[in-house]
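Hi all, long-time lurker, first post. I run a small reading group and we've been trying to get comfortable going from sequence to structure in the token notation. Rather than ask abstract questions, I figured I'd post a concrete chain and ask someone more experienced to write out its structure so we can walk through it together at our next meeting. Sequence below, copied exactly:
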Amino acid sequence: MAEEEINEDYQAEILEYLSAFENSIGAVDDMLKTMMSVSRNELLQKLDPLEQAKVDLVSVYTLNSMFWVYLATQGVNPKEHPVKQELERIRVYMNKVKEITDKKKAVKLDKGAASRFVKNALWEPKPKNESKVASKGKSKK
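-- Answer (accepted) --
Happy to help. Here is the structure in token form:
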């Protein structure tokens, strides 16, 4: 009797995982259909070079990830397959593109404005001659 309960628990858990997997596959299929509905050249013409690199990297990463899953379903350990090195190589390039994007978003320093702030913030003593002349002018009036 305990074995039947365990089997039912496993079956329900496996069914949940399979259902979630099926939903994920459907979402991937929808995204791929959307991506494939526009020709690559037409898509890339609308993007700047950095955005083109992002699209290419995401595409190749997705393809290799799907191959990783395929290998796992075929009983091959993907960690021992060259696809692992390929995914690592793609991640390195994705990080480089992210660094470039972050540099573009970084705040730029306006050197002229900064120097004016510093110059105006510094205290400058008045020359001795200037203070005497000012006080003499006031007393004569």
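A couple of things your group might point at:
The two ends are 114 Å apart (CA to CA).
Residues 2-36 form the longest helix (35 residues).
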